[in-house]
From TrEMBL:
GO MF annotations in UniProt: metal ion binding; prenyltransferase activity
GO cellular component: cytoplasm
CDD domains with a match to the protein in the record: Trans_IPPS_HT (cd00685)
Family statement: Belongs to the FPP/GGPP synthase family.
Organism: Paucibacter sediminis
Protein known as: Polyprenyl synthetase family protein
Entry keywords, A to Z: Isoprene biosynthesis, Magnesium, Metal-binding, Transferase
InterPro entries in the cross-refs: Isoprenoid_synthase_dom_sf, Polyprenyl_synt, Polyprenyl_synt_CS, Prenyl_diphosphate_synthase
Top-level lineage group: Bacteria
Keyword Metal-binding: yes
Length: 286
């Protein structure tokens, strides 16, 4: 895992340009380099290894997912969204570089993600197209952007569990699920294996958000690397506000069990890394 993290860090350092004009490159690199759990790229590579796929393609796919994730955080932290000042243990991009530069940095990173997925050589055109489609669906209106729209529209409202689950599935879960499927797309899968990995990704994607809701009320900002208690302060619906702390913890464990069960029926034999990542999603403290 450490070797994979170093490989992704080198790729980001190589592909995120320092020489983008007017300080844009500096803002982009500040927003993505040297911090973060890199869970999404690790899921890409773990799924690729599970299906004995193309590792160089998975390196590009994981880097692209991390660029999308980082851009979303930059925009999410801006005053027009969550108005946060701390991310990954340092001032947010708009605090450091100003709102306009932060907006442009996020825009440029979104575009760069698809540039990374479409090199002149090294990845077959059909695989490039499939990876781009998976990433676009996970990050657009049916996924991350749509979930953020629901989130902003839900402040101060009481949501039932089904609506809250749909919001978090879109905002957080679909990109994590998409990471698993992009890794799987780098190899050969049967329909049953693809369905099982889809279920695995859905379970850990939702578990990630449930645990985020738990950590928001149980950890301080120094541990989280971002402002603690923001959801409660903003009167946002969360799994803790809906289920209580103990209920949210039980639900996270249920989702972990669902993820492991999906791997067990996948027909794959090399799923140890995916299993470990499912546990890390639930057992983490930041």
């Amino acid at each position: 895992m450490q070797r994979a993290l170093l490989a992704y860090e080198r790729a980001l350092d190589e592909w995120v340009p320092a020489d983008a004009p007017a300080g844009l490159g500096e803002a982009m690199r500040y927003g993505v380099l040297g911090a973060g759990k890199r869970l999404r790229p690790l899921l890409v590579l773990a799924a690729c290894e599970a299906v004995d796929g193309d590792a160089p393609a998975a390196l590009r796919a994981g880097t692209a997912v991390e660029l999308i994730h980082a851009y979303s955080l930059i925009h999410d932290d801006m005053p027009c969204m969550d108005n946060d000042v701390l991310r990954r243990g340092k001032p947010t991009v708009h605090v450091q570089f100003g709102e306009a530069q932060a907006m442009l940095a996020g825009d440029a990173m979104q575009a760069l993600a698809f540039e990374v997925l479409t090199p002149e050589a090294g990845i077959a055109p059909a695989l490039q197209a499939r990876l781009c489609a998976l990433l676009a669906r996970a990050s657009g209106h049916a996924g991350m952007a749509g979930g953020q729209a629901i989130d902003l529209a839900s402040v101060g409202k009481d949501l039932d569990e089904a609506t809250l689950r749909d919001m978090h599935r879109r905002k957080t879960g679909v990109l994590l699920q998409g990471s698993v499927l992009m890794g799987a797309a780098c190899g050969e899968t049967t329909p049953a294996t693809w369905a099982a990995l889809t279920d695995y990704g859905a379970a850990i994607g939702l578990a990630f958000q449930v645990v985020d809701d738990i950590l928001d009320v149980t950890q301080d900002s120094a541990v989280l690397g971002k402002t603690a208690g923001k959801d409660q302060e903003a009167n946002k619906p969360t799994y803790v506000s809906l289920m209580g702390l103990d209920g949210a913890r039980r639900y996270a464990d249920e989702l972990r069990a669902q993820a492991h069960a999906a791997l067990a029926r996948s027909g794959l034999t090399n799923t140890a890394w995916l299993s470990l990542l499912a546990d890390r999603v639930v057992d983490r403290d930041n």
